[in-house]
Amino acid sequence: MTVDASAECRIAREMFEADNASRALGIQILELSPGHAVASMVVGETMVNGHGITHGGFVFTLADTAFALACNGYDTAAVAARADIRFLASTRLGDTLVAEAVERARYGRNGLYDVTVRRGDDVIAEFRGDSRCLRPVSTY
Predict the structure, then answer these.
(1) How far is it, in rounded angstroms, from Cα 72 to Cα 11?
(2) Cα–Cα distance list, 4 to 48, 49, 58, 73 (Å)
């Protein structure tokens, strides 16, 4: 695992530690640096739909987690403003999925990220997310 220990990734690490949903799915951080993250997940028994393939919602969750880690790698907390996914291939019980999030642009409080989800060398899905940095809470 290559995880940036700098203060810049503190927000992403703290966010992930508090993310019960991602951790309950067994999602693990493989790489983390500002604007970039790689996360993995093994498809479990409860993640398979009635067709015997991985439910798209779990693939989306893995991609969304990698996206969240990448856009929170800076010194300001960020959230998703928009996200969409294209499913390109199916996966099954026991498959290991790896999502790599890459920052494409960062401007003002906004960011644009692409996430590729793979099973080995096969591309399973392509996700695009827009982030929005939160304004610091003012105290009067």
Answers:
(1) 6
(2) 33, 36, 26, 9
Tokens matching residue 50: 């009635």
Task: Give the separation between CA 123 and CA 108, rounded to whole angstroms.
Answer: 31
Q: In the Cβ-directed half-sphere of 45, how many Cα atoms lie within 13 Å? A: 0
Q: How far is CA 12 from the centre of its chain?
A: 11
Report how far residue 8's alpha carbon sits from residue 38's, in angstroms, rounded to the nearest whole number. 17
The pLDDT tens digits of the residues spanning 38-71 come to 999 999 999 999 999 999 999 999 999 999 999 9
Side chain identity at 100, as an amino acid letter?
E
CB-count burial class (<10 Å; 0-12, 13-18, 19+) for 127: buried
CB atoms within 10 A of CB 54: 25
Q: What does the pLDDT look like over 74-120, one tens digit per residue? A: 988 999 999 999 999 999 999 999 999 999 999 999 999 999 999 99
User: How many CB atoms are closer than 10 A to CB 84?
Assistant: 10
